[in-house]
Amino acid sequence: MIFLTAGYMKVPAGLFRPGGGWSWTVIPMTVAVIRREDGRYVLVDCGFSRAEIEDPAAAFGVVRQYAFRLDRRRDPPRAVVDQLADRGIDPADVAAIVPTHLHLDHVGGFADFPNAEIVAREDELASGRRRGRNHGFIHLKGLDASGRARAVQLREEDRHGFPGHLDLFGDGRVVLLDARGHTAGSVAVLLTDPESGRSALMAGDAAYHPDELRTGRISLLARYTTFQKEWLRATWGRLRDFQSAHPETPVVLAHDLDCFRHLPH
Q1: What confidence tens digit (pLDDT) does each residue in 155-166 have?
Q2: I want to staple 123 with a disulfide (CB 3.0 to 4.6 A). Which of 6, 76, 185, 188 is the partner?
Q3: Greatest C-alpha distance within the chain
Q4: CA 173 centroid distance within chain
Q5: How far is the C-alpha of 49 from the C-alpha of 30, rounded, in Å?
Q6: DSSP string, 97-155
């Protein structure tokens, strides 16, 4: 199990961190890569695609490209597909992409993996189709046209303190947990790598910054992007309980730079 980022976005700290001020900072778009028992690979989130990184104005529109500005100075951004190729992983060997939710910076890279099914909750797909591009769901039409979107439902029973779950392949390596709030069908994904013995909980944008979890204060950006704040706060509580019960398992927020730096790459 390794972790990558398709570049770093440059953002005002005060948007993502409660009380963070207005200096510029960079944040990753964390992607997890885990090998299945059959030797093929699963990605949790996938960042921007190669085409989006090369020409963001064409991909996102002139205005939106500034909201998702990539830092091109210190670490020139590279798509996940190219980083995997450096490690000898063919894009055709990626069997599935599991987005924590379907916002553009979490699922855009699906275009680079022609054989991968994109696994999302029915609630997330339905809500994304209704809310559309103005709410960050710019890839739903492309996903539908690809025929590779796979809608799933979680089992309505508790697992690790979350009110629903799905063991995606039945082997315990990729378990989806109900983490709704940021979007209608957000999931946290518990990954377990039996070869290394490591686990990690990919929590996506359930919180933009760990200070939201620690303090219970919602960030400025979350005030405007959260689908249902009551659900989000309930998910924060479950993530805190999970951290307490499993201190050896990192809770990985997609845009937490300090956490990303300490993950295996």
Answers
A1: 999 999 999 999
A2: 185
A3: 47
A4: 17
A5: 14
A6: EE-SS-SHHHHGGGGG-TT-EEEEEHHHHHHHHHH-GGGT-TTHHHHHHHT-EEEE--B
Nearest Cα to Cα of residue 219 among 70, 15, 35: 15
Q: Which residue has the tokens 């995997």?
A: 84
Q: Quick one: which of 174, 172, 153, 154 has its CA closest to 163?
A: 154
**Domains along the chain?**
2-261 (3.60.15.10)
Dihedral over Cα of 124, 254, 263, 9: its sign = positive
Q: Give the pLDDT confidence of 28-49 residue by residue, as tens digits.
A: 999 999 999 999 999 999 999 9
The more confidently predicted of residues 22 and 53 is 53
Alpha carbons 171 and 50: distance in angstroms, whole number: 32
3-state secondary structure of 238: helix
d(CA 188, CA 253): 10
Backbone angles phi, psi at 43, to 5 degrees: -110, 140
User: 102 exposed, middle or buried (CB, 10 Å; 0-12, 13-18, 19+)?
Assistant: buried
Q: Smallest Cα–Cα separation from 242: which of 153, 178, 154?
A: 178
